[in-house]
């Protein structure tokens, strides 16, 4: 079977083979979706934004904005059959509209690039933790010592740079070989293994005596702790965790066979993604409460708490090693998808796959160095401090804010407008199938754009 684009021709000679089955697509999409966002970011932003009410808003954002946008992106990707930039231009042209819609693809590709630059630095943290775990370094560790160990890592630009470089190298390696080749086999067993390990950790968390406290924290909404900004953070995270508005799902959708149900597939991916995040929360917060740690601790949360938990359980050294290895792999299958839009775009411009992957990776690596420095030497450098919103924000904080809170919501808004108002309903129905189309179409026409606009309005004005 050959991928056909909207003009009915084979796409620009760079169309790689399609995913071999629906299962493989799901695993690749879940591989992209499940990553640091679920296990590192979700617990710490939940801690910072007060727990239950934030979790509820996040779940609502996933259901009424995230899933419809995921369906839209996979649908557009399959219809366009190109890089997100090429796809947006081609589908718009086929609808008789301006090719400038490619701008949505450009912003998505840029967002993915910026995210990759700092994601690689954070993912790098897993590697010294693997080494330490394997050496048995967490045995009986106290919370303060674990905090000091993490602080020591962040204070060392050399260490951070080393692991950032290794991780970016790994990402480029798979990307250069073609995503399908490296990804298919890996994700099919990694994701299930990660899931089982999280269940074991939740099992341990139940023995800490603080599981009930964690349940209350995560699931009893206290709306007094909810601010307009935390709603924006929840929305931004819904996009981040599902790899939306950044080309990843559009790029992967281009490799999807025509007979696969986009709606069912998107539901499956989103549900698995949410389950991993909630399991991570259930594994981490009991430990936080049991050791008097702060839920609002910030980006170091799992790196400080989990070693303490591992240090106290039987076989902890083994499980800790396994956990950080799986986290590394989860981050890896995500970072590959971040590079994909750019690599596909460069390929369409005639650059070879290897060159495109190496060039894109190198550029993201360079930008990533500014994140490395934000954590130590430049930790007081707040280049946008003249705007109140960015006071005290380092370059790393700014990349995170710009991508998750501005570029992704904006990209998703434009995507919803495109599929809801610009694209002819017959054309989207041809991809999505009858059963879900009417509901989806109403949601992307009204609910998604209004939801995003309202959240934007209360934050930016
Ligand atoms: N969803 C991934 C996570 O939660 C991150 C991710 C993968 C991503 N691909 C992306 C984020 C593309 C933005 C853009 O870790």
TrEMBL record:
Stated family: Belongs to the sodium:neurotransmitter symporter (SNF) (TC 2.A.22) family.
UniProt name for this protein: Transporter
Taxonomy, superkingdom: Bacteria
Protein's cellular compartments: Membrane
TM region positions: 23-40, 52-71, 101-122, 160-179, 186-211, 231-255, 267-293, 313-333, 354-378, 398-422, 443-460
GO CC, any one term: membrane
GO molecular function: symporter activity
Keywords, alphabetical: Membrane, Symport, Transmembrane, Transmembrane helix, Transport
Record has Oxidoreductase as a keyword: no
Species, as recorded: Zobellella denitrificans
Membrane protein topology class: Multi-pass membrane protein
NCBIfam families in the record: Na_transp
Main location: membrane
């Amino acid at each position: 079977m050959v991928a056909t684009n909207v003009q009915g021709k084979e796409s620009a000679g760079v169309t790689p083979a399609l995913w071999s089955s629906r299962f493989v697509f799901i695993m690749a999409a879940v591989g992209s979706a499940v990553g640091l966002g679920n296990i590192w970011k979700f617990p710490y932003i939940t801690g910072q934004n007060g727990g239950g009410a934030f979790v509820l808003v996040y779940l609502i954002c996933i259901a009424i904005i995230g899933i419809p946008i995921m369906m839209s992106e996979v649908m557009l990707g399959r219809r366009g059959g190109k890089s997100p930039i090429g796809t947006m231009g081609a589908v718009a042209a086929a609808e008789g509209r301006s090719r400038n819609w490619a701008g949505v693809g450009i912003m998505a590709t840029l967002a993915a690039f910026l995210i990759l630059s700092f994601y690689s630095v954070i993912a790098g943290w897993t590697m010294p933790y693997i080494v330490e775990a394997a050496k048995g370094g967490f045995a009986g560790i106290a919370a303060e010592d674990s905090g000091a160990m993490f602080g020591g890592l962040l204070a060392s630009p050399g260490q951070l740079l080393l692991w950032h470089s290794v991780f970016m190298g790994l990402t480029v390696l798979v990307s250069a070989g073609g995503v399908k080749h490296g990804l298919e086999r890996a994700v099919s067993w990694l994701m299930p293994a990660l899931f089982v390990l999280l269940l074991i950790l939740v099992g341990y968390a139940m023995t800490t005596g603080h599981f009930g406290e964690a349940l209350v924290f995560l699931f009893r909404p206290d709306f007094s702790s909810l601010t307009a900004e935390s709603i924006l953070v929840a929305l931004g995270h819904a996009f981040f965790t599902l790899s939306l508005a950044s080309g990843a799902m559009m790029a992967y959708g281009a490799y999807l066979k025509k007979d696969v149900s986009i709606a069912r597939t998107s539901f499956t991916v989103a549900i698995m993604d949410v389950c991993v995040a909630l399991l991570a929360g259930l594994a981490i917060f009991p430990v936080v409460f049991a050791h008097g740690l702060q839920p609002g601790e910030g980006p170091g949360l799992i790196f400080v708490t989990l070693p303490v938990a591992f240090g106290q359980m039987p076989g902890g050294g083994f499980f800790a090693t396994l956990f950080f290895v799986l986290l590394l792999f989860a981050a890896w299958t995500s970072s590959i998808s971040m590079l994909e839009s750019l690599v596909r775009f460069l390929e369409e411009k005639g650059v070879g796959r290897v060159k495109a992957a190496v060039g894109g990776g190198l550029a993201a690596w360079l930008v990533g160095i500014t994140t490395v420095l934000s954590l130590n030497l430049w930790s007081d450098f707040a280049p946008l401090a003249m705007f109140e919103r960015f006071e005290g924000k380092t370059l790393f904080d700014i990349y995170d804010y710009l991508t998750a809170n501005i570029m992704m919501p904006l990209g998703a808004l434009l995507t919803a407008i495109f599929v809801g108002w610009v694209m002819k309903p017959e054309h989207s129905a041809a991809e999505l199938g009858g059963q879900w189309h009417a509901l989806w179409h109403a949601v992307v026409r009204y609910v998604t754009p209004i939801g995003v606009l309202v959240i934007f309005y209360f934050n930016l004005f």
